[in-house]
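Q: My labmate handed me this sequence with no annotations at all. I'd like to see what the chain might look like in three dimensions before we decide whether it's worth expressing. Could you predict it?
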Amino acid sequence: MNSLDLGVIGNCNIAALVDSRATIVWGCFPRLDGDAVFHGLLNGSRPPSPAPPGDGAFSIELVDQFHSEQAYLPNSAILCTTLHDHHGGTAEVMDFAPRFALYERMYRPPMIVRRIRPVQGRPRMLVRLRPGFESGGLAPQITRGSNHLRYVSPAQTLRLTTNAPVSYVIEERPFALDRPMDMLLGSDESLQAGVETTARDLFERTLDHWRSWVRSLSIPFEWQDAVIRAAITLKLCNFEETGAIVAALTTSIPEAPDSQRNWDYRLCWLRDAYFVIHALNRLGVTRTMEDYLRFINDAVEDATGGELRPVYGITRDSSIDETLIPHLAGYRGFGPVRVGNQAHLQVQNDVYGSVVLASTHAFFDRRLTQPGNAPQFEQLERLGHRAVAVFDKPDAGPWELRTIASVHTFSAVMCWAACDRLAKIARHIGLSDRATYWRREADRLHTIICERAWNPDLGSFVSTFGGDAMDATLLLLHEVDFLNAGDPRFAATVNAVADNLRTGDFLFRYVGEDDFGRPATAFIICVFWYIDALAALGRRDEARELFENVLARRNALGLLSEDIDPSSGELWGNFPQTYSMVGLINCAMRLSRTWEEAF
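A: Here is what I predict for the chain of 599 residues:
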């Protein structure tokens, strides 16, 4: 049965998910939002039915295999799976996607490399390579050469080049693993050197690249391994060609069984921008941060009349309408499988504040090669005017409700944040008249929001103007500087959110019914918001204890998805989730002892 006990490999162009038995169960070509030629993760059957055949997967297994173990090579995105059989045989599979500097640019081809070597005994190995084009709707034509196989479709061709017996691979016949073997799967191009020489060179250069990248990170003294793994995972969600950072690397892993909450997250949400930029800034990953800001700025330039979409494709493609893939059963059989996301058509008024908040870094961070300037400020002002116009208008809200519109407090607060940051930017670049204008607008919005989003009967801010329900975004009122940490209204709101939404160590987004009923799992980022709020309130011991508990719920490789069952600890939702990894990084940075305090 499928689970999210998965590792991720990638190179900021493609990515793949590898299960604990060394099977690639998810992977898109020729880029991370492309055709899911490896789609086995989404072609399961409902338990307790047996799993279907391994179509849409790339497995390497031992005959009579009984056990496996898995770990990343330290400070890298190279995943090592060790397989054991019942006869004392052991083999090691090293998986990675090549990534390193070459000819003054980053070499990141659409390629997966699998290096296999015997460790003990003479194990017998079976390889099953079953890609399916059009997400499994089109079987490939297979042609062969002396040391390669070509999987051909009208849209693209994948080539496996290997020093393993090609006939055994194509016939799925076991053979003795009596020497190291390599498998390179990627574009239909011949290698310029031998298979082993090429694989070894790609491995060594990729390992050196990742370890050099990690050495450049700013990390806290505590929880270093967790932060490093989260940082690498965040980087793997970056489509480096355009600077976009996707919400996750998968589509349609449901938020809960039979919930129908199955969405495509291989897209870039502007709402994530502030929190992602904040994490990248804290890590010192300035080039990725600057590229992401450039992607956002390009989206702003595209905006007609200052109106932004909440979500974009990784090339700013706005043609991302939601469609169904009927021939895939879904994760564990819990369909539907969707490609595209209809949220791009929704009205979500918080996007204006999210973009201004993220873009503020460009005006204050002296490390950036392309700092903010007056023309960029004028672009952001257009967003500010739009924020003022819509701050008290109904929208789908931060949780993207499909048939319910309200004036959401979070959307209004983010519109206020747009005005607040524009005032600060204007003052910083010497535009005193614009600073005065935006400060006046920010103060006006702040007064209205406090009047309409505060519920005096509950003694708390609430999710919607004039409402009485809670949602987890209220935990961010201090994070975005809407309330001071010492404001009693902030403490009261944090307590009210916890009372209403917390179950065990986690928090739900909200508990009321929506288009799909009541949520059944907790949204992982919410607990990180809660931890940050506790720390802001001076409840650091409580925050640290909860943070440790949450870290213990990561999968075996230190990764998190979008959602979690608070009772069982089982992970659900798209994977790995950028928001969750960003939340982990930001909390660790906030809670850790300083390096000066450590010795």
